[in-house]
């Protein structure tokens, strides 16, 4: 079923209103939808490299606005909506323990989920549920999603189709390693 949803989402990349479809997918992916906007961004940018920055901007804007919906779900509807979404992703069991530490790591949690393959929707809902300061959430979401979408757009704009395989299979791992090195560097400086 997920493969059919993925294929259907991908088919919209050639739709005449693909930017609107991208905005919709980026918006709902930040709170409930399982397919990331990159699925649409990659073929759209390859087809129209001159629009790479516009495509990244649409994905960024819609994703951050969708993140606010996820935040609201966590803040106001966690029991009725947020918890079932997280439960279907297998994340519900660790919520109590995670809640106690989440806001201490809030910036890093949002940044990590915003740029890595970790589901961003989990962090948007958790941010609202734990009461993370809204300003921190918005600023970090903008930073993280900008890094992700504009790096993908820049790589595709510069290198075209040859970089596609790298982005689809290895970029998430590189982002994850980058976050680990960044956090490790801060911890090293703090404790030396």
UniProtKB/TrEMBL annotation:
GO-annotated cellular components: plasma membrane
Domain VTT: 36-155
Keyword Transferase: no
Stored InterPro entries: DedA_domain (IPR051311), VTT_dom (IPR032816)
Keyword set, alphabetical order: Membrane, Transmembrane, Transmembrane helix
Record keyword Transmembrane present: yes
Positions of transmembrane segments: 20-40, 52-78, 105-123, 135-159, 171-189
Protein name as it appears in the record: DedA family protein
Organism in which the protein naturally occurs: Phaeobacter gallaeciensis
């Amino acid at each position: 079923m997920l493969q059919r949803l993925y294929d259907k989402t991908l088919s919209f990349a050639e739709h005449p209103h693909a930017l609107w479809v991208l905005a919709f997918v980026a918006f709902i992916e930040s709170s409930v939808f399982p397919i990331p906007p990159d699925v649409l961004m990659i073929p759209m940018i390859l087809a129209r490299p001159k629009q790479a920055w516009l495509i990244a901007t649409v994905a960024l804007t819609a994703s951050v606005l969708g993140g606010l919906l996820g935040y609201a779900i966590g803040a106001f509807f966690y029991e009725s909506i947020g918890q079932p979404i997280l439960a279907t992703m297998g994340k519900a069991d660790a919520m109590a323990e995670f809640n106690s530490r989440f806001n201490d790591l809030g910036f890093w949690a949002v940044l990590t989920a915003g740029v890595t393959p970790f589901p961003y929707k989990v962090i948007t809902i958790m941010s609202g549920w734990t009461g993370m300061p809204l300003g921190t959430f918005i600023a970090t979401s903008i930073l993280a999603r900008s890094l992700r979408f504009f790096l993908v757009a820049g790589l595709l704009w510069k290198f075209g189709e040859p970089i596609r395989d790298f982005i689809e299979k290895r970029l998430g791992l590189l982002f994850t390693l980058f976050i680990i090195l960044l956090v490790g560097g801060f911890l090293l400086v703090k404790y030396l």
